[in-house]
Amino acid sequence: MQVVAKNINDYTRELKVDLTWEEVQPNFNKAAKAFSKKIKMPGFRPGRVPMERLLSQFQANIEAEFMDANFQKYYLAAVQEKKLMPVNKAEIKDVDFRMNQDFSFTATFEVEPEIVIPNMKKNSLQVNRTNYLHDDQDIEDAILQLRKAQASIVTIEDGAKEGDYLVCSLQKLDDSGVPIIGKKFENQYLRVGNGSFTDDQKDKLIGLKSGETARLRLPVNEDGGDADYDLVVDRVERENLPELNDDFIKTVNPDLNSVDSLRKDVEKKIIENFKERSQTAYERELSDKAIDFVNPAFAPSMVENYLENLVEDVKKQNNGEPLDEAKVKEQYKSVAERNVKWYSIRREIINSQEMKVEKEDVEEEISRLIQRTPKSEKEIKRFYKKPSNKKRIEDDLMEKKILNYLEQFTQVKEVDVETKKLRENANVN
Predict the structure, then answer these.
(1) pLDDT attached to residue 389
(2) Considering the domain boundaries, does residue 120 fall inside one?
(3) In CATH, what number is assigned to the domain containing residue 28?
(4) What radius of gyration, in Å, describes the C-alpha atoms of the chain?
(5) Residue 277 within a domain
(6) Staple partner for 162: which of 37, 92, 193, 243, CB 3.0–4.6 Å?
């Protein structure tokens, strides 16, 4: 077999494959014998038809049978000879085969492009690291969320206040104000205010009691469309927050014994959470800057494969609901391209630096996770006994190795951000 490889571009390869008749004849004869067993011919038992008689009548069929049974084998042999790894289905053309003649074809396919990381020097990558400066309001908000998690819901008879919930029915109206049949929605929960409605809509809800009505204009789709609804209040519900006392604190954490200890514990968790948030953002920016620096080529089929897998994941999450696959792909195309580029850079760094994640590294990481939550030791060990879950740790540790390698070429700018600004921005949005 003679195989001539041609590079079309960074990621496209073309193989011209030629086989002599002598090379393919044994497999052709096997195909002919297999074919003879499937036909019935007067005067002959299946599989006993003379070759000449068989070929005189069914040569084209046998040639097709031979191709079906052997083409993939010859294609894979050619790919292996040139040590290539296709990432998509090959386009086959110029197929030329007849009995007693040489066999040739051309295969075109995509491969993972080989990338070369440019010579990086100190400070080649400019990356920001955010230092979040928290305040007392962060602590108060966190404690409020703890209280809300244990709040009881009570039905009230006085008028609704901001933050209350209206349990109601909503009747959709047409443009002339006539109720639309089949568009009445029972047992709907609407929260009064707190950003859920515009001020004029909120004012219509404040003070409502059981049995009272209001007319609202509400959004009906994500594109900005809206419609009028008649609202009838069934009941008004309010959160009844537990008192911030010793009994409540014990339910949050039995190891705590005072409001002050709760505040310190909450503050510690806030600091840890913001550190994790900062580190995640830093690592993301570092990998993005590496992508920009290298700007690797990528095979379009790799992006398409990524998007196909993503679509399948979204389908599972949609529980069979209709899905605009083209819209999903378009929405995530830039993400897919970014991740494919990063995959290529990771692969090159791993290979060039001969990086490995040792078994001991994995065990140490599992031990570290147990130390953080010792009460969950059994569950953690059971979880990471599963190979696929252990593979996650290996991937995470390898990611850290890669990022640590890149840090030697990184200039880090520390940026202070007050959490007050984050809250203000959240309220605006």
Answers:
(1) 92
(2) no
(3) 3.30.70.1050
(4) 34
(5) yes
(6) 193
Phi-psi map region of 234: left, alpha, beta (phi>0 left; psi -120 to 50 alpha) = alpha
- Cβ contacts of 180 within 8 Å, gap of 6 or more: 171, 172, 173, 174
**Per-position DSSP letters for 80-106, written without gaps between them:** HHTT--BSSPPEEEEEE--TTS-EEEE
Mean pLDDT of 330-359: 95
Q: Which token pair is 351?
A: 């290979």
Element (H, E) at 125: strand 125-133
DSSP tag of 171: E
Whole-angstrom distance, CA of residue 149 vs CA of residue 154:
15
| pLDDT exceeds 70 at position 195 | no
DSSP string across 196-242: SS-HHHHHHHTT--TT-EEEEEEE-STTS-EEEEEEEEEEEEEEEPP
User: Are residues 128 and 358 in contact, defined by beta-carbon separation less than 8 angstroms?
Assistant: no
For residue 354, what is the enclosing H or E element?
none
**Three-state DSSP class for residue 135:** coil
Host domain of residue 266: 128-133+248-295+353-428
pLDDT at 285: 97
Given a contact cutoff of 8 angstroms between Cβ atoms, the answer to whether 169 and 187 are in contact is yes
Closest by Cα among 129, 143, 130 to 269: 143
DSSP 41: B
Indicate if 40 and 159 belong to the same structural domain.
Answer: no
Rounded Cα distance, 399 and 410, in Å: 16
* CATH number of the domain that residue 162 is part of: 3.10.50.40
Q: Are 102 and 18 in contact, with CB atoms under 8 Å apart?
A: yes
Domain count, the chain: 3
Both tokens of 314, joined, read 């979204």
Q: What is the pTM of this model?
A: 0.78
pLDDT score of 234: 96
